[in-house]
Amino acid sequence: MAQHQPIRRSHPPSGSDIPDKLYFRIGEVSKLCDVPAYVLRFWESEFPQLKPHKGGTGQRLYRRRDVETALHIKSLLYDEGYTIPGARQVIKGELRQKEPQLPLAIENGAAPVVNVQQLRKLQKELRDLHALLSKPTAPRAAVHTIRAPRPSGAPRRTPAQLFDAPPDA
Question: CA within 20 to 30 Å of 11's CA: 80, 96, 107, 135, which one?
């Protein structure tokens, strides 16, 4: 009898397991991620970060970054147990974390290195914002109606009366 191999690999492929190529076809990415191609196509619709290029024939061409993103999505969904919305939120949070942040706490008893230029820029932006919000609002111009107000006590006209009435001279 033929030996059956396990469906799941004993270890998930890492970034170093990805071949050094410029583009990968969906079948190759499917094998690397160990998921069917239709799952990758579904993930494309659910995760805006996973957007392979489509060649002239319409075939999906994944770059290395796309393969790494697919592996990360698989890890979040299958290994860590996130739901699709939860995994989407984690990835968004990771992208936000890549933006540089100022250190908030003193580490190891030493003062953190502070970028004075960045702090001054932030301070200026805050002052400008404060000045903008502190300005008194200008009084709004009176709103002018398009037509003259109806005299008090005058009956309202129905749509039929409006369209059947002769035009005012």
Answer: 96
Axis-axis angle for helices 26-33, 37-46 (nearest 10): 90
Query: CA 165 → CA 122, 156, 157, distances in Å?
Result: 65, 13, 10
Q: Residue 168 phi/psi, 5° resolution?
A: -75, 140
Question: What residues form DSSP beta bridges with 49?
Answer: none
Distance CA 64, CA 48 (A): 16
Q: Write down the pLDDT at residue 1.
A: 44
The pTM score is 0.51
Asked if residue 50 lies in contact with residue 44, where contact means CB atoms within 8 angstroms, the answer is yes
Structure letter (DSSP) for residue 110: B
Domains for the chain: give ranges and CATH numbers.
20-97 (1.10.1660.10)
Q: For 95-109, what is the mean pLDDT?
A: 62
DSSP-assigned letters across all residues of 15-30: GGGS-S-S-EEHHHHH
